[in-house]
Amino acid sequence: MRFLFIFILVLGLSSCKQTKPETLPQSSVYNLSSEWENQNADKIHLADLKGKVVVMVMIYTSCKTACPQLTAEMGKIARETEDIPQEDIRYVLVSIDPEHDTPEVMKDYLKRNKFQNEKWLFLRSSIEETRELANVLAVKYKQISPIDFSHSNIISVFDKNGVLAFQKEGLSLDVEGTVKEVRKQTKK
To answer: Which InterPro entries match (predicted)?
Structure first.
């Protein structure tokens, strides 16, 4: 009887082991605690993207100059990596104009650009949280009129732990380096 009691006690204690939460690298964007709203009005945290390679760009939907080009680049990257399983990658547009870019506006923007599968997210947050992410990405932006912004043109690739792996700066449809990095990160 005493042996049975000890066996049950040991078994019970071993099943109560606390697992240590996996720690993220210090440079992970997933360490940001900001809350975001996607095109479906769902609330998420960037850490919800952990385990996926993330291709991210900061834009605003009413832009008539650089943002359409950045959006076209994101589309080209997605087409050139369409063989990557949906569960391994996310293409993320982040609004620098969260007051105007509501979930309905973001959803319409994705639809107009034919970005309608589960690989695509359009996010917005508060002005402060947006500025914090922009600083992490080295994206500079400034509102120059009630409907216009001046901003950096940067597409970023994050590894599965949210560590910045690659950035492409400037406007060109040459996405070879970005595609190469996406493929490298999804194979890890």
So the answer is: SCO1/SenC, Thioredoxin-like_sf, Thioredoxin_domain
Nearest CA among 187, 188, 185, 177 for reference residue 80: 177
Domains, the chain: 29-187 (3.40.30.10)
**Cβ proximity of 142 and 134 under 8 Å:** no
Do the beta carbons of residue 171 and residue 180 sit within 8 Å?
no
DSSP 3-state of 99:
coil
Q: Order of strands, edge to edge, in the sheet holding 89-95?
A: 43-45, 35-38, 120-124, 89-95, 53-59, 154-158, 164-169
Length of the chain in residues, anyone? 188
Residue 84 token pair: 């990557």
Assessment of whether the complete model's pTM goes beyond 0.70: yes
pLDDT at 6: 40
Distance CA 143, CA 96 (A): 9
Q: What is the pLDDT of residues 64-118, one digit of tens each?
A: 888 999 999 999 999 999 999 989 999 999 999 999 999 999 999 999 999 988 9
More confident residue, 151 or 42: 42
Question: Do 153 and 168 meet the contact criterion of CB atoms below 8 Å apart?
Answer: no
